[in-house]
Amino acid sequence: MNVETQLRKAEIEDRNAIWAIIQQSIERRKQDGSTQWQNGYPNMGTVESDIAKGFGYVLTVENEIAVYAALILNDEPAYSTIEGAWLSDGEFVVVHRVAVDGKFAGQGMVKKLFDHIEDFTRAQGIQSIKVDTNYDNIAMLKILESKGYSYCGEVLLADGMRKAYEKIII
Q1: CB-neighbour burial class of residue 4 (10 A; exposed 0-12, middle 13-18, buried 19+)
Q2: CATH classification (class only), 5-168
Q3: Which residues form the N-acetyltransferase domain (predicted)?
Q4: Is the N-terminal amide bond of 77 cis, ω within 30° of 0?
C-alpha cells in the first residue's frame, strides 16, 4: 500500500481523535489477553499532557490521523536503570504510547511511523531511538525486530517490567 503519510505534532484539536484511537488500542490489547494499558493508563489526561509538552505526534494518511505516538527527547527516568545495557549513552528519542486507528491496523502504518521517527531523529542530529514494550505485545515486538532494533534488556515502568530496545541512527 503506497499512500502518502506525514508525521506532525499533535494539536489540542486532535485530542478527541487521538483518545478514540488509544481507546481502540486499549480494547485490542484486552482482546489479546494483555495486561498492558488495562489500568487506566494512558487516558485523556495523558494525551492532553503529551500535546501540551510537545510530545504528541500523529501519523496522518491523506490528512486523517492513523497512528499516535509520544516522542520524548532524552527523558525517560525509568531508562536510567536497565537490567542489561543500552547500546549508547548519547542523546535519544523515546517512543511511547503507540496506538493505531483500527481502520489502519494491519496496513504497515506503525512501520511507516518508525520510518518517520528515524528521519525525525536523524534531522535533529540525535544518536538513537529507545523504546520499550510489554512482553506480550507480539505485534510491536515483531515490528521492532523487523526495523532493526536491538534488544537491550528490561526496564521497570510504573506498571511493570518491559522489554527495552534501541536503534542507533547516526
Answers
A1: exposed
A2: alpha beta
A3: 5-166
A4: no
If you write DSSP's letter for every residue of 98-151 in order, what string do you get?
EEE-GGGTTTTHHHHHHHHHHHHHHHTT--EEEEEE-TT-HHHHHHHHHTTPEE
Q: What would the pLDDT profile of 69-111 be if each residue is shown by its tens digit?
A: 999 999 899 999 999 999 999 999 999 999 999 999 999 999 9
- Alpha carbon distance 5, 115 (integer Å): 11
- Cα atoms in the Cβ-side hemisphere of radius 13 Å centred on 98: 20
Q: Return the closest-CA partner of residue 57 out of 5, 92, 106.
A: 5
Hey, what's the cell of 131?
Answer: 523504546
User: How confident is the model over 22-49, as pLDDT tens digits?
Assistant: 999 999 999 988 888 988 889 999 999 9
Task: Look at strands 92-100 and 128-133 and give their pairing.
Answer: parallel
- Domain borders along the chain are 5-168
**For residue 7, which of 50, 57, 56 has the smallest C-alpha distance?**
57
Classify 14 as helix, strand or coil: helix
The set of cell numbers assigned to 14 is 486532535
Q: Which residues pair with 168 in a beta bridge?
A: 128
